[in-house]
Amino acid sequence: MILPIVAYGDPVLKKKATDITKDYPNFDDLLDNMFETMYNAYGVGLAAPQIGLPIRLFLVDTSPFSEDEDLSEEEQKELKDFKRVFINAKITKEEGDQWAFNEGCLSIPDVREDVFRQPKITIEYLDENFKSHTETFDGLIARVIQHEYDHIEGVLFTDKLSSLKKRLIKGRLNNISKGKINVDYRMRFPNQKKRR
């Protein structure tokens, strides 16, 4: 089932999410719905707060990035095959010189800005079977994970922008929170009762 994606301005997006256990109600259905919702909106990641649930769960599928012809064959293959579920994740290390990449977010449609992040991360998480992992990722995969991880920490990519950039996009962000935007996927807006 395709769920509405929560728009910028909803308090759930600014809340630090809580851990879950393997007896979380209807967990398999939730995962299926989140993947379906993400693919329907052409996303490469989706965090539970973006569908209104303040829990430490996000998923990533970087396969759309694998079609970038500027990447090496090895990078394309790595991105094509990367699909993961992250539960109760904790980034334990970020390394390297920060680099900029133009990011967007399904909760903040039509706003894209360069965000600086470190290129390499180590993360502890549980997979969809609640099996524990500690892994290190770099490049675009690390970046997508960092972006989704921020969601479960109550942080949006717009929070990482300079105060000048924030002022420049303030009007657009206000319009999104009021539902004054055209999107081709279901959204739930904080300042209006009507659902799309």
Description of the molecule:
The chain has 196 residues and is α+β, with helices and mostly antiparallel strands. It has 4 helices and 9 strands, in the order βαββαβββββααβ. A hairpin with a 2-residue loop joins β5 and β6. Belongs to the polypeptide deformylase family. It holds the Pfam family Pep_deformylase. Its EC number is 3.5.1.88.
Shape: globular
What average pLDDT do the residues reach? Answer: 95
> What's the order of the H and E elements?
EHEEHEEEEEHHE
Radius of gyration: 16 Å
Main beta sheet strand tally, sense and closure = 5 strands, antiparallel
CATH topology value: Peptide Deformylase
Number of strands: 9
Q: CATH homologous superfamily, by name?
A: Peptide deformylase
Enzyme class: hydrolase
Keywords: Hydrolase, Iron, Metal-binding, Protein biosynthesis
Pfam family, one: Pep_deformylase
Family: Belongs to the polypeptide deformylase family.
